[in-house]
């Protein structure tokens, strides 16, 4: 394993982290036993960066990670555990409803996450989304008080604009911005947001670095997805878009074969090569995929390899938005 530092003031983490959401929700039927084995294997590989959120399964994912942490209490200080707050669930539907980043809610959400995780502090605490009606100074000010109280070590934001990031960083140092970033989704990061992160010394934590599994090549049609898989609601997996996107996946596969790796490894190695300040957090609940992902750290891409991968997925050729319309409204504030 190789390691990177999250921003100018953040912790050292493994160059690839583990997104834990799919262990509890979104991608088919959960498998607690295999998920725990996957977390064990992650630790054995030297992976030290775990990502969860209070919104994943309405706290169920934090509880799952917490059960693993209790089994590995002696290694707690080695692990960097990140979680998020701000997406509140509608009690009547069970789905995410309002975004709440008010100063009053911040400590309430934090203490609930600490309880579910079974830890005394959160290593990296993100605002999952931002309510534009709440000044970011108010939110980050409340988060900074958690740092002062010893409940949180470092602060992050997710899916915010460059202007919001600058304003927030002036209140308290931001260690990381979590944002969707992959060969399939580049424009949201590359440009003003990435330039701002580098100017301020803030890391980019790339979620969905494999295009929600599309870039692995494991999905050949919507029929491969379980009936309760959230991707059935995602535009890029819609009937009118998926076959066009799979043509791009095949182009990535051809480049990967030339490099001598899997499509997933090529996609992750491409992200890693974009800068030491970028840390992808591919999600999986299975050991075999974890091992495949971690192996990407050892790959060394040439400039020609990186350019071929970019050309394989022209951004304008990707069919469909990255989120349904209701979720898109919560991004970039």
TrEMBL record:
Classification via InterPro entries: Aldo-Keto_reductase, NAD(P)_OxRdtase_dom_sf, NADP_OxRdtase_dom
Molecular function as annotated in GO: oxidoreductase activity
Keyword annotations: Oxidoreductase
GO cellular component, one term: cytoplasm
Domain NADP-dependent oxidoreductase, chain residue ranges per copy: 16-309
Coiled coil location: none
Superkingdom of the source species: Bacteria
Secretion signal, residue range per the UniProt entry: none
Record-given protein name: Aldo/keto reductase
Organism: Streptomyces angustmyceticus
């Amino acid at each position: 394993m190789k390691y990177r530092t999250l921003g100018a003031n953040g912790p050292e983490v493994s160059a690839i982290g583990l997104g834990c959401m799919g262990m509890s929700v979104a991608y088919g039927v959960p498998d607690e036993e295999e998920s725990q084995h996957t977390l064990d294997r992650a630790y054995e590989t030297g992976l030290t960066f775990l990502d969860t959120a209070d919104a994943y399964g309405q706290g169920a994912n934090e509880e799952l990670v917490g059960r693993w942490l209790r089994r590995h209490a002696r290694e707690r200080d080695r692990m960097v555990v990140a979680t998020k707050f701000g997406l509140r669930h509608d009690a009547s539907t069970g789905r995410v409803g309002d975004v709440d980043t008010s100063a009053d809610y911040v400590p309430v959400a934090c203490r609930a996450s600490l309880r579910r995780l079974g830890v005394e502090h959160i290593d990296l605490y993100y605002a999952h989304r931002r309510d534009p009606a709440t000044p970011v100074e108010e939110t980050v000010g409340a988060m900074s008080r958690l740092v002062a109280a010893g409940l949180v070590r470092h602060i992050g934001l997710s899916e915010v604009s460059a202007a919001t990031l600058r304003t927030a960083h002036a209140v308290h140092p931001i260690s990381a911005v979590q944002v969707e970033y992959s060969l399939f989704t580049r424009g949201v990061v590359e440009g003003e947001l990435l330039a701002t992160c580098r100017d301020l010394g803030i890391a980019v934590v790339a979620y969905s670095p494999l295009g929600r599994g599309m870039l692995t090549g494991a999905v050949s049609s919507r029929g491969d997805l379980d009936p309760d898989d959230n991707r059935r609601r995602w535009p890029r997996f819609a009937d009118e878009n998926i076959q066009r996107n799979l043509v791009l996946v095949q182009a990535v596969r051809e480049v990967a074969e030339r490099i001598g790796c899997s499509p997933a490894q090529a996609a992750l190695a491409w992200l890693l090569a974009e800068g030491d300040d970028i840390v992808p957090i591919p999600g999986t609940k299975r050991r075999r995929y974890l091992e495949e992902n971690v192996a990407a750290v050892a790959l060394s891409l040439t400039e020609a390899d990186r350019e071929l991968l970019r050309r394989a997925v022209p951004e304008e050729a990707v069919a469909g938005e990255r989120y349904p319309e209701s979720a898109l409204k919560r991004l970039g504030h």
